[in-house]
């Protein structure tokens, strides 16, 4: 059983349980997101995971060709691409994941509300190199077992947390790459101060990702002071893809 959920989070998780199994056979290698982040850092560039997101329940919407977008992000030096596959609230699809993972040669992350092993089977078969696991919607046991299940495919999951309690859960479950979301999933409010506070509590052997609400180079430089190794950016790049050059 998942934790007690309310509002749209309850609906999005219910929907996740009934996602179909995708009949595809993976035909590409797995690229490590962690290795890619380390490499970009060594080159003294900012590791940016660019997100392909067409809509979100917070009101965002953008129409952009997935192939053009992914190619431009790769050409500009993005460390990876995150692709929304959630269909009901984010207008994502498994097709976008398949197209993008077969267009670029950088790691691709499946961004969804993962609660079942079948969703991880789909991620692997469609060509993803990592998946997101959101601590807020999982029990400790589910988190642990989904991490191990993803690893059985050599997909190292990005574990998303909100606060110190969730950080403890992520660390107990053995997460190697943790993302702190500045956006509260229920209220959509952005809080970068919370992100800074939580980031500095993450041990430095874990890869630390700052997620959401990032629009400027100054913000990135500030987040780096608190230990951020990488940055997950959606809305501002979907609106203006060329902006990635100044952020890197
Ligand atoms: O568009 P932004 O503010 O740059 O945020 C990107 C990403 O962090 C955000 O889409 C996100 C973070 N965690 C999520 C969980 C589910 C869906 C979406 C998300």
From TrEMBL:
EC numbers: 4.1.1.48
Domain Indole-3-glycerol phosphate synthase: 26-242
InterPro entries attached to this UniProt entry: Aldolase_TIM, Indole-3-glycerol_P_synth, Indole-3-glycerol_P_synth_dom, RibuloseP-bd_barrel
Pathway participation: Amino-acid biosynthesis; L-tryptophan biosynthesis; L-tryptophan from chorismate: step 4/5
GO molecular function: indole-3-glycerol-phosphate synthase activity; phosphoribosylanthranilate isomerase activity
Catalyzed chemical reaction(s): 1-(2-carboxyphenylamino)-1-deoxy-D-ribulose 5-phosphate + H(+) = (1S,2R)-1-C-(indol-3-yl)glycerol 3-phosphate + CO2 + H2O
Keyword line: Amino-acid biosynthesis, Aromatic amino acid biosynthesis, Decarboxylase, Lyase, Tryptophan biosynthesis
Any one Gene Ontology BP term: L-tryptophan biosynthetic process
Record HAMAP family: IGPS_A
Protein family: Belongs to the TrpC family.
Protein name from the UniProt record: Indole-3-glycerol phosphate synthase
Source organism of the structure: Acidianus hospitalis
Lineage: Archaea, Thermoproteota, Thermoprotei, Sulfolobales, Sulfolobaceae
């Amino acid at each position: 059983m998942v934790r007690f959920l309310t509002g749209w989070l309850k609906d999005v998780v219910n929907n996740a349980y009934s996602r179909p199994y995708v009949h595809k056979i993976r035909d590409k290698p797995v690229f490590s997101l962690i290795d890619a982040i380390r490499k970009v850092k060594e080159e003294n560039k900012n590791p940016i995971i660019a997100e392909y997101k067409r809509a979100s329940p917070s009101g965002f919407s953008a129409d952009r060709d997935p192939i053009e977008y992914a190619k431009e992000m790769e050409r500009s030096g993005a460390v990876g691409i995150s692709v929304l596959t959630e269909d009901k609230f984010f207008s994502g699809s498994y097709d976008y994941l398949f197209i993008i993972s077969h267009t670029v040669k950088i790691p691709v992350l499946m961004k969804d509300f993962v609660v079942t092993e079948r969703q991880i089977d789909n991620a692997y078969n469609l060509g993803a190199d990592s998946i997101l696991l959101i601590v807020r919607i999982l029990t400790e046991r589910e988190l642990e077992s989904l991490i191990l299940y993803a690893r059985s495919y050599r997909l190292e999951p990005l574990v998303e947390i909100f606060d110190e309690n969730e950080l403890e859960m992520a660390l107990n479950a053995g997460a190697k790459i943790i993302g702190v979301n500045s956006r509260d999933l229920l209220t959509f409010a952005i809080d970068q101060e919370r992100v800074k506070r939580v980031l500095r509590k993450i041990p430095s052997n874990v890869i630390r990702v700052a997620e959401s609400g990032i629009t400027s180079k100054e913000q990135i430089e500030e987040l780096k002071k608190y230990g951020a190794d990488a940055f997950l950016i959606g809305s501002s790049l979907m609106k203006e893809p060329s902006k990635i050059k100044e952020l890197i």
